[in-house]
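dude i think i finally got it to work??
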Amino acid sequence: MTIDAQRRRVYAAHTASQRLLIADADTGKVLGQVKVGPLHGVAVDPTTGYVYTGDGTDQTVDEVDPVTQQVLRSAAVPGNVDAIAYDRAMHRVYADEDNGTHVFVVDTKTMKLVASVLLPGNDPEFLTVDPKTHALYQNISDLSEYVVVDGTTLKVTSSVPTPQIKANHPLQYDPAYRQVVIGGENGLLAAYDSTGKLVGTLAIQPRVDQCALDPGTHLEACAGSGFVTLVRDNPGAAPTLVAQGGVSNGAHTVGIDAKTGNVWIVWSDPSGDYVQALKRAP
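look at this
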């Protein structure tokens, strides 16, 4: 899930229906769904407003116009796609290989695969880009570590062990504080500085799937195990708890609206599929 705060749009990957869900960030109204394939990752180009999707076992990255609700272009990649990240300045989509060993690099000017980055391990999870240095941060779940990929050479330059975290999944990078925050199955968030040194941990709910960061406020929302937890990143220190609320057990993807501060979740149960905004109470 991701949010275009400028254009007031919420985008969610609906894997089961193989559609990109588009909702209005102010009203919550579902505006449409675009058939793209069994997508997992979603990213927005803030310049054009186009949306990129990583389409799972279809082994493609698609470019979607959310206004016309059409797929404009598609790039084939040699593996199943899980999470994706977009580098605005470099015009790249990074797509990690689900239960694989590579990050696929797609040039969005041509919508062509231009490189594959070999990773350690066999289970890359969430990834994100430093907008200043263009370094890529990639979680490696089976090795309990994250790696840093140089944005110029497209080579892994360092591996950082994260023994505090079991089954690494969510990863966010706060560019102002130059800190990486990682969560997993064992109910902890762990923050690491730019050298890979642990600066602190915070106990939250277990089995967190996705976290989302608002770099302007340094607030980070994490979903999983029937809760959404909002924390604040702190320079050189552990995150601190801001708020927590109970939600459906099916809610595990999350986004933050940088304009309103609302936290969005998407979830399903036998009664239907839902996209929902949560507002922090005073």
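The radius of gyration is 17 Å.
im so relieved honestly
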